[in-house]
Amino acid sequence: xxxxxxxxxxxxxxxxxxxxxxxxxxxxxxxxxxxxxxxxxxxxxxxxxxxxxxxxxxxxxxxxxxxxxxxxxxxxxxxxxxxxxxxxxxxxxxxxxxxxxxxxxxxxxxxxxxxxxxxxxxxxxxxxxxxxxxxxxxxxxxxxxxxxxxxxxxx
Length: 155
Description:
This protein is an alpha/beta fold.
């Protein structure tokens, strides 16, 4: 593992089942597991994270509420945000594609359907590489961040 990645603080706001997997995937990082939107809001205001992982079905499907707030806190304006869809989701491919577009329009850096990642060592390693990559490039996979008015957010 790249030494720049060891022990980084990562906030996860996902369902309990997905939290278990993400904690396994993110072993070696300091994982801050949130259980409610209110708890996550407090953590987002108080701490800068190396990355944020939000689950579509977190806290009664309140991911979009939380995602909207992430960029409003100065300490997280450029933090990489990864949104994930649980493995047990039964959404159609069209709905999943709509989620992908929606989270990126709301300034998330990436969207992953966990159904595409086997729940095994290989699938976990693939997820880890994606999260590590987002941290290493500081989330800048779209050529920079823009605010809600389309203006560049300066780092």
